[in-house]
Amino acid sequence: MATSFSSSISTSTSFFPHFHVATTTRFTLQKPASIFNDRKTNLSFSLRSPIPARLAISCAVKQETVEKVSEIVKKQLSLAEDQNVTAGTKFTELGADSLDTVEIVMVLEEEFGITMAEERAKEIATVQQATELIEELVQQKTA
Q: Domains in the chain, ordered, with CATH?
């Protein structure tokens, strides 16, 4: 079964720790992946430079979930159909205030049949963060 995943790789390397100078590089990839029965994917990558001090990789969310969350956000905020809402879009960039965010969370809970803990829901600032939490909770629910 082929499924699209939204993946991101973030690196942060400090070259001069005494002077607190750091460089950050961010890569965003979207690539189809095959999911096998053991839930492993065929995604792979290699680094051609030394491994940075900090490397974080996120490949957890399905593109379909990102799109569904994006559509819900657009509807809740009464955005135009042609408004571009991606995984990295911050709710505040779309004009959402804290009440709007609470309403978005409530609709997401209803749509996906989940309940988000208030502490975790308060941390949601982007479509990606909402999607990651939703998929985590859905997976816990079905396990």
A: 2-61 (no CATH), 63-142 (1.10.1200.10)
